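Before we proceed, please read the two lines closing this message. Report back on whether the structure tokens fit the sequence:
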Amino acid sequence: QVRLVESGGGVVQPGGSLRLSCAASGMPFSSYTMGWFRQAPEKEREFVCAIGGSGGRTYYTDSVKGRFTISRDNAKNTVYLQMNSLKDEDTAVYYCAANPVSSGFLIYASYRYDYWGQGTQVTVSS
């Protein structure tokens, strides 16, 4: 049984930082592209970033480029999201997900992700 478990969410002031983690089990972790998505209240879920199975390729939505960094440790079956310079508009539930596709536009497509975590709340507020 595949499980993805996120942790590290919380409340932070604008300009602050948080590091999210997502621990995977029950799947060949290094064979999957891992992605982070987020969903704000009354908005659709959106792609944030993703990282290829070997960690060599990363993909970011424009609004987080230069502020967020995705990484993975295949020995620990864990993917991370370092979020710096957080803004109010980053407030959302953040989900990690696993995608068997290794390249191309399907990296950005939520429907192509086979497995999802339960989400962790990130609130940016003064």
